[in-house]
Amino acid sequence: MTTTIIILCTLAALLELDTTYAFQTLVSRPIIAGPLLGLFMGDVLAGVQVGVFAELLLLDISPLGGIIPPSGVVATAIPLILYSQGIELHFGFFLGILAAICYSFFDTFLRKTRFKWLIYSEQRIGRKPADLWRILIMSLALSFLMTFVFISTATWLCTQVMLMVTPLISAKVNFAFHLAYLAVPWIGLATLIPTFRLKTR
């Protein structure tokens, strides 16, 4: 892994904390995370494009009840990290969406596993309230580390897959993926139209 990839994975893991675990300032939304990651990799326009596309595609999925939606940060970070390695955005984007869906299952597993830790932490804080900040920082650090490991692993796997598959991709398949990528914002807008209609009635 190059220094740029490590920095991007670190920044993505930090942004993912904003989704649920800390602050919730909306910097984890793809439309904001994309330009930030693009700025660090030296291509803000690519960051804006991927961020807007991912935002439009994932905007209608709400974290209601037990549903954990695909991670907007992962969906944005993976394509940009792959793009920094010379992999086309239209391939990276769909790999990023797949990784974001996988992350939702990974996050579900982490939350179930964390439940016992939370019970233990609550009892410990009850006995010794001064430990609150130490436990809080430790929880955030563990969440960051697990997300960093997931993004790094997903990046490595996607890179290996693309290195093997790219020589086999024909011009027609490449063009088809490019068209599908350009269709993403229109699909996202189409899913929002019924929502706006309901709100105006």
Strand and helix layout:
Layout lengths: L2 H15 L12 H12 L2 H15 L13 H13 L4 H39 L4 H34 L5 H30 L1
Q: How much helix, percentage-wise, in residues?
A: over 70%
Which structural category fits the helices and strands?
mainly alpha
CA distance, first residue to last residue = 52 Å
Query: Radius of gyration from the CA trace?
Result: 19 Å
β-strand amount = under 5%
What is the overall pLDDT average? 84
Uncertain spans: none
H and E order: HHHHHHH
Q: What characteristic shape results from the CA principal axes?
A: globular
Provide an overview of this structure.
The protein is an all-alpha fold and 201 residues long. The chain has one domain. Helix content is 79%, strand content 0%. The chain has 7 helices and no strands. The protein has helices at residues 3-17, 30-41, 44-58, 72-84, 89-127, 132-165, 171-200. Helix 1 runs antiparallel to helix 2 (30-41), helix 2 runs parallel beside helix 4 (72-84) and helix 4 (72-84) packs across helix 6 (132-165). The protein is globular and about 65 Å long. It starts with a helix and ends with a helix.
